[in-house]
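Q: What structure does this chain adopt?
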Amino acid sequence: MSVVSHIRAIMLLPGVVLAVVPGIILYSSGTINFLWRQQPPFNALLLAVGSACIAFGLFLMARTISLFAGVGQGTLAPWEPPKKLVVQGIYRQVRNPMISGVLFILCGESLIFGSTGILAWFLFFLWGNLIYIPILEEPGLEKRFGEDYTLYKKNVPRWIPRLHPWDQPAA
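A:
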């Protein structure tokens, strides 16, 4: 996959979810309640927690995009998905680190911008993925990767990471 393919996928998927929609929400509301208009020390706490959420979310996204490109030989986009099942790095502990990263960033944006609209978007995005992933994404992955994905799915949780990385049995 080319660099352009990866950039396009990032801009169209997490870019829209994390920048375009929150930007529209903030613009439409006409107000930003930075740090929920809290006074010290609560504003510093909100800034620290919000920033930590965003930093962790960006870390998860960067790791997953890197693994999709290097190991999976594809992008995060459904129109150019990984050709190989990725069961390395963070994927040894949790099956959906990309979505988790996006959710962490949305949570951080809500805290920093003091936006109930972004919080509602976070909840809608979470709800959508709670439905989409088990009903559509996972059956598609089982069809594409067969028994390898089924074994992976049995051993690695969807959302809450394992304490110890899963070691895939040798083929």
